[in-house]
Design a protein that fits this description.
The strands form two sheets. This protein has a six-stranded antiparallel β-sheet, with helices on one face. Strands 5-6 form a two-stranded antiparallel ribbon. It is an alpha+beta fold and 187 residues long. The chain has one domain. The chain is 29% helix and 20% strand. The chain has six helices and eight strands; from the N terminus they run αβαββαβαββααββ. This is PF13503 domain protein.
Length: 187
Amino acid sequence: MSKITQNTIIETFSSYKDLCNLYLIIDAAQQPEKITDFIRQKYGKTNLIFHSLFAGTQEGNVPFRASPIYIKLDTDNMYENSPICLLFEELCQTESMINIIGSTQDEAIFVKHLKNYLSICDENGTPYLFRWYDPRIGKYMHQVLTEEQWLEFTAPMEVWWISMVQYDFESQIIMHNNYRKQYENHQ
């Protein structure tokens, strides 16, 4: 197992930046103080723009610090010792709360797609919060989503990594468009 470093995210970004937009999605509810402190320290001092995926949804009144937060990665924020790379490295060593998802879709369309999956309904039509952005949930998606829902959810994604503590980053790829893992592989 190789240690996940800020170079992991820089190399990942470099290999995909010309193919798709990459988004860092952080499950802030796992470490709200750490994420809030980071945002307070860096907001206005960097070009990072933090967005809550809960904004504009039925969960919209959840505090920002307890929301899934996404940051669009670009060449302005992806360099060695950049604030986001340092945060990525720190969180990957201690927490399982990081996703990197790539899509060729326009940002607004893709984010709307992700927001559509923040809640799902059971067989009775009762909506439930669906924490797909929590990497610890990834291995259980086959128990929550039907094959059709899985394929629909991942359709606009080119690649999706999760970061699990104590695991090699490359082994945590959930899906990749070139070899899209079939639903049954997740069971």
